[in-house]
Amino acid sequence: MATNSKRQFCRFSSLLLILLPILSSGSHYTVTGHGFSIEEASVHDIQLAFKQNQLTSRQLVEFYLKQIHRLDPIIKGVIEVNPEALHLADKADSERKSKAPRSLSGLRAQWCLKMLEW
What we know:
Elements: H1 2-24, E1 30-31, E2 36-37, H2 43-51, H3 57-75, H4 85-97, H5 104-117
Antiparallel strand pairs: 1-2
Helix pairs in contact: 3-4
Keywords: Signal
Protein name: Amidase
InterPro entries: AS_sf
């Protein structure tokens, strides 16, 4: 049985080494010529981009939805995508514009929980 596990691990590792360069190519997302790359951004960078109007919640959510759509057929790791994700992103953008961020903390909490599950 241990031999079977080792064999599966070797197959998975080999597949990962083959797919990693393919999956990582061409997935950079630059927003409106500012040179901001979501893929390489830290949470602080994203918050700063929101503050400087270089990034919207909708753009961020669209980026991750595209990543899920592109990668999940291969990885098969996403159980469910919130059908309200774009609506919540638009709501967060509206609240940010009006300087009344009521649901932003809830959106951040949902995002953090999803990232921890991932």
